[in-house]
Design goal:
single chain; rod-shaped
């Protein structure tokens, strides 16, 4: 009589006299994950362990992280452009006073990074 595991297509292998189920994660297409996705992965592992395990065992973790990664990058770029326009930072300022332009752009990037972290990465 077959076990329920075998009826559902599972197989076993023998190891030291014991039957061990052959468990494998579903194959998943590898997609590049940048810093945004890596930070969200760390967050999932530390604070959302059930979600992380469910995504991993269903074979959807990499796709999920790639999606979060692209959303975060798009949001980050859009925020930078919006804040630049709101503060009147132009290429003209870059030509006239490169040091001030650099400082203001670094501030904008830091603000945008915090917003993306709060709204997408650690949400």
């Amino acid at each position: 009589m077959k076990s329920l595991f075998e009826q559902l297509g599972g197989t076993y292998h023998e190891e030291n006299g014991y039957l061990i189920p052959d468990l494998r994660l579903p194959t998943e297409e590898e997609q590049p994950i940048s810093a945004w996705g890596q930070r969200h992965l760390d967050y999932l592992k530390q604070y959302r362990k059930v979600t992380y395990t469910n995504l991993l065992t269903s074979g959807r973790l990499n796709t999920y992280l790639a999606d979060i990664d692209s959303q975060a990058q798009e949001c980050f770029e859009r925020l930078i452009e919006d804040i630049k326009q709101a503060q009147g930072i132009t290429e003209c300022l870059k030509e006239e006073n490169a040091l001030e332009w650099t400082g203001r752009m670094n501030n904008i990037r830091a603000c945008a990074r915090e917003i993306v972290d709060r709204e997408i990465i650690y949400a």
